[in-house]
Design goal:
Blueprint (H helix, E strand, L loop, with lengths): L1 E4 L5 E5 L7 E4 L18 E5 L16 H15 L4 E6 L1 H12 L4 E7 L12 H9 L7 H12 L5 H6 L20 H7 L7 H8 L6 E6 L7 H8 L5 E6 L6 H4 L1 H8 L4
Parallel strand pairs: 3-4, 3-5, 5-6, 6-7, 7-8
Antiparallel strand pairs: 1-2, 2-4
């Protein structure tokens, strides 16, 4: 583990090599400790614990906003002494990666977005979008119970218990249940997308001129961003390669590590 001081003096931690060509990984959640990304089947990974998560120090609430954490990524780049970085963002971490790339495009060598949240670019995922994916999994043994949670949510009763019930939908086809080691800073998570954190219109405009090789990888049965929205996302980036991993859910590396690694290693 290494540490560095960010722009405001907050001490942040990272895990992995700090050599000349790390793949810097930004976790999702939002605001989940990066430990779950240790399972990524990739070489030279450097996982950043976002402020207030994992081994990083807690910080003032207002600094947990996604747009403000961009400066933490920039502070890490400077600490590593790299002119350009390779950046991977998963889920909400994809929002942070996009915000960094549009603010500091001159410092990004390549961008890997794994099931990135569509919020940063203003793409709305509808209940009908998710129904299409959810109903396609009716042959799964856990489906009869899990779909009750979605029906409750779609009816407007989005309780924590309902979200617990739909948990199997996050996994890919045939995937075994895995232990949830996603330690999330819930207080910080509430601030990540706080008012003012995102400007989708400005971000979309900046992406039109982003001259960075980009991989967009989505799971075929990911209810977080169904396939129609994945294609919509890919159209916003002029140098993007879209990969849909067959049978995969929201963490596609857990469903087929070889397919996942092969796709990421073929960034244009």
């Amino acid at each position: 583990m290494g540490t560095f001081n960010s722009y405001d003096g907050t001490k942040l931690a990272f895990h992995g090599p700090s050599g000349s060509d790390p793949l810097i990984c930004l976790p999702g959640g939002p605001m989940t400790a990066s430990a779950y990304l240790a399972a990524l089947p990739l070489d030279n990974l450097l996982r950043l614990d976002l402020r207030g998560t994992g081994e990083s120090e807690e910080a003032p609430l207002e600094t947990y906003r996604a747009d403000r954490q961009v400066e933490d990524v920039e502070a890490l780049r400077r600490h590593l002494g790299l002119e350009k970085i390779r950046l991977l963002g998963h889920s909400a971490g994809g929002s942070l990666a996009i915000l960094y790339a549009t603010r500091y495009p001159q410092h990004v060598e390549e961008l890997v977005l794994i099931a990135p949240s569509p919020r940063v670019v203003g793409i709305d995922v509808t209940d009908d979008d998710r129904r299409t994916i959810a109903y396609s999994r009716s042959d799964e043994p856990w489906y009869p119970e899990a779909i009750k949670g979605f029906e409750q949510i779609w009816a407007g009763d989005a309780t924590p218990e309902a979200f617990d019930t739909i948990a199997p939908f996050w996994r890919g086809r045939g995937a075994d249940e895995v232990e949830d080691d996603h330690a999330t800073n819930e207080v910080a998570a509430e601030q990540f997308y706080a008012e003012g954190a995102l400007d989708p219109e400005a971000t979309r405009a900046a992406l039109k001129t982003l001259d960075v090789p980009t991989l967009l990888l989505f799971g075929e049965v990911d209810v977080a961003i169904p396939l129609n929205r994945a294609h919509e996302y890919a159209e916003l980036l002029p140098h993007a390669r879209l990969v849909i991993q067959a049978g995969a859910g929201h963490a596609p590396w857990l469903d087929d590590s070889e397919a996942f690694a092969g796709a990421v290693q073929r960034i244009p």
